[in-house]
Write a structure and sequence with these properties.
Helix content is 35%, strand content 22%. It has 315 residues and is α+β, with helices and mostly antiparallel strands. It has 3 domains: 7-113, DNA Primase, Chain A, CATH 3.90.580; 128-192, no CATH class; 199-297, 3-Layer(aba) Sandwich (Dna Topoisomerase Vi A Subunit, Chain: A, domain 2), CATH 3.40.1360. A hairpin with a 4-residue loop joins strand 3 and strand 4. Helix 8 (214-224) packs across helix 11.
Length: 315
Amino acid sequence: MEKKLSCTDAKKIDLVEFLAKLGYRPEKLRNDDSWYKSPLRGENTASFKVSKKLNCWFDFGTGQGGNLIDFGVLYFRCTVSELLQKLQGMGFGPTLSFHQPISAFSALAALAGQEAGEKKTERPGKLIVLEVGPLTSGQLVEYCEKRCIPLKIAHAYCKEVSFELYGKRHSAIGFKNNAGGYELRCDNFKGSSSPKAPTFINNGSQVVAVFEGVFSFLSFQIMIQDQKPALTNFLVLNSLSFFQSARLTMDAHQQVHLYLDRDPPGQKHALQAIQRAQERYIDKSQIYVGFKDFNEYLVNRNTKHQQVARRGLRA
């Protein structure tokens, strides 16, 4: 009896060979990287990168990337189990595997050209992290207070990051992602260091709460700090463009609670996910209806509480 192809086997299949079997040839070769016109959309300039060394892909036009399974479910618009059947039907089996699998987050970081330890010529506008330490700066503490985030919660998840940009030194609140980069926030700066990737916090739960950005995640921590909630995993996308590539992480859970922004892109992604798997995905953003995101709701609520308190003192 023929052995069925597993996800581990599929991730080891050579991506360049797989694309060739689908009829795609690279437009250019650069070191160990092959550049294609994206098989997932129409384009005139090759911006779909495949690393031969890492056996993973990144589409610079959409911000999506990952391993062969991530590509296959998007390309064929099918489930993972259907993809495994297709791969086996194409002649790919356990004996035709070549590469060790790599995590989706590591793939995204590496294929964006930001692999750890990679030597590059520094660009004048490249953000360079200088120091990482506890959150102590008065200005950054004030910024946390402005966003209504208690220091206890900020200290639990964030650092103070000093960085250089255009030859000048700055400091910001830093939230680390799973590829080693930082989301950086302060009163007059919003950016990130390389590599950029989502942040997955694994608490061993079958439920995951998903947020677009760090301050929505921190706002959620305030909501549950006085409760005794069931154990939950957390996924902070750090950019909505990572939603599709993080699907395998989300789909590994029995329930996915979506706390995305209540703007058209966030609501569109939530609706598409629910339509795809209504029994798994739940839109939790109704909590902050009327506001762009969780943090905007929190700031507005705290402002109203302060106004009520001041009126009480004057009475």
